[in-house]
Structures are given as C-alpha cells and as structure tokens.
Amino acid sequence: MKGHFGNWQQVLEHHAQTIPNHIALAKYQGSDNQALSYSQLAQRAKALAYTLSQHNKFGDRVMLLIPNGIDYVVAFFACIYAGVIAVPIYPARRKARDWRRLNSIVQDCQPNTLICLSDDSEATKDWCEAHDLNINTIFADQLNINDATLWQAENIDTHDIAYLQYSSGSTGQPKGVMLSHHNLLCNTGLIIDSFEMCQSDTLINWLPLYHDMGCVGATLSPLRAGATIYFLASAKVAQNPYILLQAITDLKATITAAPNFIFDLATEKVTESQKSSLELSSLRVFVNGAEPINAQTLEKFYDNFHSAGLSKTAVKPCYGMAEACLLVTATPINHSFKLLSVDSQALSVDKVKIAPSTGRNIPSSGKLITQMPLRIVDPATRLPLADGQIGEIMYKGDSVTRGYWQKPELNEQTFNLNIEGEPGFMATGDLGFVDQQQLYVTGRKKEMLIVHGCNYYPQDIEHSLLSLSKLLTPHGAAVFEVTHANNSKEIVVVQELTRESMRLHDYEPIFKQIRAIIAQEHELRVTAIVLIRPASLSKTSSGKIQRLACKQAYINGELNAVAQWQQPAISEVSLAPLHAYDNKSIENWVIHWISHRLSQSIATLSPSQHLMQIGLDSIDAMSLVNELSKQLALSIRIESVLSYPTIEQLATYLAAQYAQKNQTAANETPTEGVL
Q1: Structure confidence by residue, pLDDT tens digits, 534-546
Q2: 160: how many CB neighbours lie within 10 A of its CB?
Q3: Is 142 exposed, middle or buried, given 0-12, 13-18 or 19+ CB atoms closer than 10 A?
C-alpha cells in the first residue's frame, strides 16, 4: 500500500480512511489499551497538533523528548499535522553528557516547544532551569482527544521540512539533517520496494526513534505500507537480545532490524535452551545496518540460528545514512547476504585482490539501487574510480536532503557536488568499492589508521578484541591514531571494563592480552591502552562508537580511566654481538633485543612466548630478522617468525641452520684448477 502522496499528513489520513481499524502501533506484551489503530493514531495526532498550533507557527521547531513507544509516534505525526518541524531526541535525563548534547541541539535549531511525558517533567524542568532555557513544554500523555475536532489542516508543500534528523555525531558535533516530505516519501518508497513491505507485515521495532534507522526504516516505512509495528524497549534488547528473538517467535514477525553488534550479542548470549524455544521461520527481513558490518558476524549468526528456522535470505546487510533519509543500498528480498574473499595485505594499501581460498571475507552492504546513482571516487581528486578500486563513496537521488540546518559552508562542501560535470552528488566520507553491482564499505576516511604506509580500519581491530576476556565489555573499544608535534604516532586503544573487572587489583594481564591479539591478528604494535569505567565509552545516540570524541578526550586527559598502559619510546637497539651460536645463546640475545626494542623488562619475557604476542609489529619483526641475519651471517626469511613463532623455537631453528651452514663449509673441497 505504498501509494502516491505529496506529504506525510496525506499518508496517515489515507490509512485512517481506508484501513481505520487495522492496528498501526502496539506494545509487545502490553495491555489492550497499549495499541492504536490507524484511525486512532490519526485522531490522537490531530488532538496534539491542535495544542501545538496554539503555541507555534508554521515551520517552528519542536523537540520530542519522549521514550521509545507509541507516544513518540503520536507526537511525531502531531508535528506533521501542525506544520511544525519535528526534532526527535530523547528524554532529558539527569546525565551531564545527555544535557551537553541536548544543549548543542537547542543552540543549533532554536526550538520553540518541547514535547515530553509527564513522568519526565521534573527532569526536563531541571534541565531547562539549569541552562536558562525558556521553552514551552507540552505533555504528550495529557492531550484532550476531543481537541482533534478543532484541528485545522495546514497547507504543506512536498518540499517543506518534515523533521530534523540530528546526525549521531560519530565523527563530530551533531548536525541537523533537513528531511523534507519528498525526501522521506522517496526513501520509504525504496525501502518498501526493496523488502516488499505490505499491510500484512508485522514489524518489531526496538531501535531508538530519534535515530534514522528507528524512525525512517522501522516506523515511517511500515506505516506507509499499512503494516503493524510492535515496540520493544531498546535497553532490554541491547542487554538481552533473546527478548527480540522471542518477540519474533511470539508475534510471527516478518521484519526487524539491528546494528551489527546485536547479531554478535545474540550469537554469544542466547543459550541452547533458549534457542530451542525459538521459531524464526516467519522472518523475511532482518536488516543489519547503522554500523560497520562484519562477515564473521553474519556467518556465525546464521549458523547459530538456522536450526531455529532462520532463513539465510532473511539476513539483510544494508548501507545508508541520515543524509539520504536512510537507505542507499540493500540486499534484495529472496537474496542471501554476499561475501567476497580478498587479500588482506592488498586491502591495507587500498587494493582489492580477489583471493577465493586464502583471503579474508568482507561483506557486501547490498546491491546498488537505480534511483540512488552511486560512484566511487578518488578522495583527493573526486575523479571516478573503476569497479574494484577503493575510494570515497558518493551518491545522489531524490532521497538526498538539501543539507544541514543552518550550516551553509558545510553544505557547500558536502552536497550537490560534481563528478565529471554531473551535479547532485553527496560526499559521504565513507570508503569502499563496487564489485558486480555490490557495495563493499571498508571504513571512514577520517577514522582510518595509516601505519607504515598501510591502511587499517579501526572497526576491524576493535572486533578482534571480542575474543578476549569476559572482563572487557563487548563492543566497548575505540581504536584511533594520535599524531604528536614531532610527527611521532600512537596507536591507542580505549576499552571499557565490565563491572566484574572493576574489582581487579592488577590489570597487567589485560594489557598483555590486548597487545597480543592486536599484534597477532593485525601485526600492529599498540602504544597506549586506557581501561575505562563501564558505560563511559563515548557513543552516539544510536550506539555507534565516537572514535574522534574518544580521541579528543584522550588528548585532553578527560577519559574516565581506571588503569592505563603506555609503551615507552622505542630504543635503537645496540647490543653486544653474538659470541656463541647455540640455541640458548640465541634465545638470550633475542630476549635482550626485544627488551631494548620495547623498553620491556627482561623479567617479563620468556623463551616460550610467541614473538607476535609480546607486542612486536611487522616492522619490529623485520628489524629483528635483519639483525639476526647479520649476527649469524645467514639469509633469514621473515616467514621464519611465522613458522617458528616462539623465541625458543626460532632460536633452535637458527642454531641448526648456523650449524648446518658451517658443517657444509667445512666439508667443501677446493675446486681451483678444475676445468
């Protein structure tokens, strides 16, 4: 029931007339009065719109400070009916961090009115008084339903702004994306077509409604299709993803969505006993989006839950962003997610080399969509690149907004850009490539680490930490690079602890684990690790890690640190040469070399340790091999470090090679004079 409409008031009015008794919104495990039909939703929206019209004029901004649920959607559509611009946020809790974000949004959009629930009235009042904010406050749960008859329709143009989507701020301060009625109608049309949404669909929405995925993808799109939405509490699902899977089972839900980390948590936390109670065969679409997607996550999730009826075609990696309303690329209906095996070393230098048997799997973020022309361009020149080459992702289309509220300079840098004379493209700041009409996203331009001429994506390093101790909060790490005035660089890991690990007295084992896994999997040497208190990692409202904010807090010394480790400056090794060439002498020399190189106490090193687990990076390993080649007068290959990974094994191998070389030389006979 996609229909052709000029604005969102027309969408809801149409459904209120054609399917008045069909359930639009309901609360999972709620009572009968916690559900609204399409006609009831329209009536409540009109009643609240009348109250709004008494305090606001057309185009005023109205902030929604409401918890997830039915009242949020009523308030959003009340703004639509009143002709004001909705600004979806979240309740004004008494957290300083929340207040800072709310203050920056208030300063940016200058709202005339706040809509909240009466339960939050005291916290909202405290916030306003603390920051001297003189803003009207309306309570969404105290409306007079009879006011619906007093509502008068506004003349809404299709290009009027429907709402401001404040970007999650993963790479900077929040910015208000101006989403017009036309933008939203175009993008929800693409979503409905991509996933074949219809009136018979049941969608479960646990995502924050102040986020584009929760609002556009999991609310406006199904409402436009005439479907039914059930709400779950966001915090409960994030803590226990079994609740989401149980709701799918109970409601025979057909569509839901989540960021990548929920798929990981479900695989990790749902027990075999819980899994036996699940029936997921009704699920046609389970969107994975809103953060970098991991191939291993997709495979493990499917492998873990296909016995519960999960179809492989249900798991739908997608790519999008608020500046396009939401969707840019999507895995089509009845298609399985696609993985591409590429050479890791080539990828690190922005090359794509297909390696079917030996490569690393990376996931497609969906197929290109005709209505959203997409190009991969050289970030420096903005010249288009051929398929299979990594560059900045740019796209255009009717879904793309006119820009950010009150930011003309930034809009000029970001929107309506030309690619070889073709206007209208938006610069995303994301990196990726296209292969066979599939988009592969590799990272963000601003967050990428460049070490020894190779590119490393922080999300890959962060993901490797998931295999470590339960003492670390899953998806609680931020990795970034800091360049100092003398051009020296640090690779920094900020990692949340769990509440259990807050009771520890010695964090050295955790530091060693982190250094070892990163050196082993990525051949990188971490130079600083900061362990911080639970729930203190800087994240966006949608749960994305704010790496740049973490970086700034690290530089300013503002992290909520529990323990910190710092790599001492690398010493230019100058050791006495080897005088004996047996394995014990070589072992001892290597241990002293590492001690000097990493400024690490000899007491912490032993012959049984893996070289890469000690914290050596690829450059350290090459330096060690080069020095050993000189000391032993042998031609040693870097592969030896992999074949003989411990200090003891390497020393034994080298001692044998040295002895063999000298034995061969002793047995050689002179050949002078022989023809």
Answers
A1: 989 988 766 778 8
A2: 17
A3: exposed
405: nearest Cα among 561, 627, 180: 180
Tokens of 134: 């003189």
- The DSSP 8-state label assigned to residue 214 in this structure reads I
Encoded tokens for 72? 């949020």
β-sheet with 285-288: strand ranges across = 35-37, 23-27, 228-231, 202-205, 255-258, 285-288, 315-320, 327-330
Sign of CA dihedral 579, 584, 587, 591: negative
Find all residues with CB under 8 Å of 556, minimum gap 6, and list them.
none
Query: Cβ–Cβ contacts within 10 Å for residue 273, how many?
Result: 7
How far is 33 from 122, CA to CA, in rounded Å? Answer: 26
Q: What is the identity of the amino acid at 4? A: H
Decide if 123 contacts 93 (C-beta within 8 A): yes
Cα separation, 361 vs 264, in Å, equals 17
Token code pair at residue 23: 């359930």
**Under a CB-based contact definition with an 8 Å cutoff, are residues 181 and 159 in contact?**
yes
Strands (E), 321-410: 327-330, 339-342, 360-363, 374-377, 391-395
pLDDT tens figures, 132-186: 888 999 999 998 999 999 999 999 999 999 999 987 544 456 789 999 999 999 9
d(CA 573, CA 508): 25
Instruction: Tell me the angle at which helices 38-53 and 70-82 cross, rounded to the nearest 10 degrees.
Output: 60
